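Ligand: flavin-adenine dinucleotide. Inputs:
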Amino acid sequence: GNISIFWFDHGWFWFIPLADGATSVGAVCWPYYLKARKSDPTTFLHETIALCPAIAERLKDAELLGPVTATGNYSYTSERMSGEGYIMLGDAFAFIDPVFSSGVYLAMNSAFLGADTVDVCLRQPHRAARALKQFDAAIRRGLATFSWFIYRITTPVFRDLFMHPRDIFRIEQAMLSLLAGDIFRPSPVHSRLALFKGLYYFMNLLDSRRSFAAWRRRRMAIRDPQAEAATAAAR
Ligand SMILES: Cc1cc2nc3c(=O)[nH]c(=O)nc-3n(C[C@H](O)[C@H](O)[C@H](O)COP(=O)(O)OP(=O)(O)OC[C@H]3O[C@@H](n4cnc5c(N)ncnc54)[C@H](O)[C@@H]3O)c2cc1C
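Predicted complex:
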């Protein structure tokens, strides 16, 4: 089945149908909301699902198959990607928010690029330094491309663009290519994504009051556990 994302007031849910009929469900929430948790993770997940009618409806007949677990912000990037006799692939090097379901693709892609790099290092040691540098740059470029979108996905302007897509200059197709992971080869996708970024900044300027208010709410939501009341009041 298709992967779904459900946005709600305190964050977003993932809903990923698996091959055996089970579905992976979880929530990524703002710190103020998670810090307010008083119940155990299972109860808290059910309470959180109840706050989002769309996913509650999808799950009304669902049965919980395993234990519910909770974890804190786990995004990271290592300082170096390779050293004497090793390279780092996939999550070993970096982990970014899974909102675009990019992790497995990024890991597999880094494995393919990494295998070619190791091949060069072993067969043509005089080219090793250059191959490792190219490998490093390609992986960081891919992560940066996804990260730009991930960091902005909760902003009102981004959400408007995402939820009401119009395929001007084939930007929508470029976004689909991004989501499919097709960003590692030279293609027109990159200029269309740059156009999307330009459009995003332009719309933020047009709607600067709302953007500034959202930026302030986001800062409060991250910094202050008491910000829930302020966030609710600002809506
Ligand atoms: C909540 C959540 C939701 C996610 N959703 C998605 C999604 O929808 N789509 C998506 O593409 N990605 C998703 N990801 C990310 C994705 O799971 C990872 O990015 C991906 O699995 C990385 O693959 P990897 O091979 O680098 O690492 P892993 O999948 O972690 O594989 C590493 C393996 O090495 C083994 N290992 C560790 N140490 C040793 C050792 N010393 N000796 C031998 N073996 C060892 C581990 O047991 C593990 O099996 C999600 C991640 C999280 C946390």
